[in-house]
Amino acid sequence: MSVLDIAKGMGVTLSHLFKKPVTVSYPEQKVDIKARFRGRHHLLRHPNGLEKCIGCSLCAAACPAYCIYVEAAENDPANPTSPGERYAKIYEINMLRCIFCGFCEEACPTGAVVLGHEFELADFKYKDFTYGKDDMLVGTVGSKWQRREADRLEKPVELGFKAGQRVELEGVDY
Amino acid sequence: MKVKVNDVELDLEPGTSAIDAVFAAGYDVPYFCSQEYMSPIGACRMCLGKVGAPRKDRETNDWIRDAETGEPQIFYFPNLMATCTTAIMDGMVIDTLSKEVRQAQSGMMEFHLINHPLDCPVCDKGGACELQDRAYEYGAGTSRFEFDKRHQEKHHALSELITLDRERCIHCKRCVRYFEEVPGDEVLDFIERGGHTYIGTVDEGLPSYFTGNITDICPVGALLDATSRFRGRNWEYDHTRTVSLDDASGAAIMVDARTGRIERVKGARNTQVNLDWIDDSTRFGHEYVDAPDRLKTPLIRKGALLEPASWEEAAQFIASRLAVAGKRVGVAVRSDATLEEGVAAKALAEHLRGHAEHFPRPAASVIAENPATFTDVATSDAIFVVGDPTEEVPTLDLRIKDALRGVAPPELLAHGVPIADLRLKERMPRKRSILTVAAPYRTNLMRHAGQELIYPAGQEEDLFGGVGSGKAGASLAAEQLNQLKSALSDAKKPVIILGAFVLASAAATRAAEALAESVGAKVMKLGPMANSYGLEALEVTSDGGYADLLTQSDVLILSNLNPAQDVQIGERLRNLDLLIVHDSFETETTGLAHVVLPAKTGYEKEGTVVNLEGRFLNVYPAPVDSGTSEDFIGVVRTLGEALGVRLDGRSVRSARRSLAKTLNHDLAALPEEGLLAPVDAKEIGETVADTVAGNLLLTSSLLKVDRLRRNPKLRAAHGDVALRVNPADAEAQNLEAGANVTVNIGGVARSATIKITEDAPEGLMLLPATFDQALGLTSAEIVPAADLVSA
Ligand code: SF4
Ligand code: SF4
Ligand code: SF4
Ligand code: FES
Prior knowledge:
By secondary structure, chain A is of the alpha+beta class. Helices cover 22% and strands 17% of the residues of chain A. A seven-stranded mixed beta sheet of chain B has the order 16-15-26-25-24-17-18, sandwiched between helices. In chain B, strands 1, 2, 3, 4, 5 and 6 form a six-stranded mixed beta sheet that branches.
């Protein structure tokens, strides 16, 4: 190692001293998240209000962490939950096991499950990491814990990020 | 015959189909319409291959040879051939790999997909679909069809048990052929023509006991099991190949469970027993397993109430009371208990110096002297049935119909059962004359028989005597019986099948065996339950039988039995020192018990059963959530621990060690076809005075009466428990069709719905028996159900 190399290295360090710091003082300040960031899943609806999910379980088949459980049932033709014959009666994702790889989104034939931007999923009990349909259908904002806190404080959920828009997230508004 | 498939040379029997040659050579062609054990018809045109053969010169009688090489010249058929309907010829060359063939196959695939909906994600066949797999392997990958697809009905309920999606049907005709060829009930057909063709029926529902098999063979998701609709995807099920414990045939089944529930049961292949077919009760009768009132923990009596407890508490409770010496102990298991459970029951009884027994057990032995196998039946040229196999052992019903086609079960090839057996044809003439069915009433099988003999119930001995001596007997003319005798003696492979009504009488069974010996016939005895044969062979029997055990014990340990269904017996059981009942549900008997232990059902056990041929078959447990339920082995293990002894049969392994000594077979991991090892017949029991009078015949039933209440879907399809009454009797007794009545048989009160039918002879009503009722003649009193309510 020559003196020149050391000088080069120190040069890099020194040059950063004069740049604007990237540190964000979360949670006071909101994190800026890229549009393609993969956070908590959303279950989307068609514009007519019907759920996009048809309960086909392909996401569960694609999931490398085996963290999705789907139980399907037959739609009541008079009052359908989703278009067609079949809908997801139970749709659960265990967020502790999920590695946010996005394979489920890739596998979904109807674009029903899409990874959103929410990342503040910390909680206290194992069972609270199992997210059901109610926790993921569009319109639900925040993690389970955030919603519990919001309920307690009687304030709306406040998410800790600013997100870029992503077309796949039809109907999701942060 | 020498054939060449691509680069593989084979030597096959003449008559083999070209498609089987291809598979035997280890190559593959796509196919949808051919199906093992059914006729090939060449409907789907997927199995195309380039087929050619050498030709002989008429004059020289030598092969026409290639001028250059001197080898026999191959003359190819002008078009590609459907290999399933082409028989092999000497020197045949089959090509399945060339571009021409592949292109034709992918072209056919495109045609199949033109009108096929893109339903895979919501289709219950997805993941196990022949069309999906073949489209992936042989299809073009993209569609050129830009127009509207055909639209037809999407969820048409063919019956309560089967849904049909007409858009998905590819018109392979498997289902239509199945009904005509296998059970012989023609209930489905194509309606309309061309692109409008659809599968349909003119009947109400599907009037057959064997409808579920079409959901197994439909290559697409057109015909689906309605009971498991949308319950899970094919890759999500835990598949357990096991044996059905619903009847004595030992039919192979595949139990598909998910998250601790049995979602569906499918037929599995046992080439020696049920081929691929199972009856609807075996397929759809599992719903009771997940019934909400299933017992999941032991119960201990505290005063008038039974309270939940742990197994340890239950065992301590029992041990403290069993310690008292000098008690007469009885242990009884139901006859579908496994051999291993039988060992456990015997060991427990022996340790407590008591008796072990199994029930139901007919008066006569169920082990035949010269036993027939299912293959013997299917290849027989004279079959004499006394009884009702359709209800007793449904698999046998189908194997008898195999014999009527006159085509022996196919030889296995390198890839297994031939895919296209060219000996089988659509609408084959049936050799009805080889089948004679005798029963006290009109049975289902009689529709297929050359000769039907309806004799007065209870006169089975006379019937066999009559056939043997050629004299009139059992109210049947001498001529008819003589004809039967000569048919049996002239036949090369006669088989006599003895149903429950024969076995109920030792004298009749003796007469039947005498007849069989005189005409050289093999005998098949239809034991009442899945392991009747095995438990008898293991001698889980006591001298006095079950009846004595119930009356002469101070301590009773019962597994899956409900003697207190009879209030008179129930009164006696009340006075027992200790009554331990091992059952899956609460019954009249658990209501009297001191301790109730939760029992596993036949789908959850591990063990071995012996079917009516004497075939040892392994039973494997499906992953079902049944709380702390145990089989009888578990009961004996826990009791043994509490009593401080190590009993034989405390585990499956220890039971098998003991069985290896008594039966000389190692029962761990038997082959899928089982181990055919009939045991020596024993002396038929003492002749007890048979009941020869009565107005009611308790029959066996494919739909298990005790479980029907917890199987609403099966009940909806096949109706509730019916009391069948002859129209004349109904009028005389003022009984109306569809009315609910209570049938009092001794101390047993059974509810049933009246069904008026000519099937029941005059003066005799027919009622399916429960597991705890002995089959045969008895006297009953019919009370309108309404009276019971008002009283
Ligand atoms: S993101 Fe990946 S790990 Fe998470 S649920 Fe989807 S497939 Fe499974
Ligand atoms: S039948 Fe097969 S190919 Fe057709 S929709 Fe169902 S899974 Fe897909
Ligand atoms: S319903 Fe199924 S088995 Fe019947 S013809 Fe159609 S595709 Fe074939
Ligand atoms: S034509 Fe269908 S398998 Fe040959």
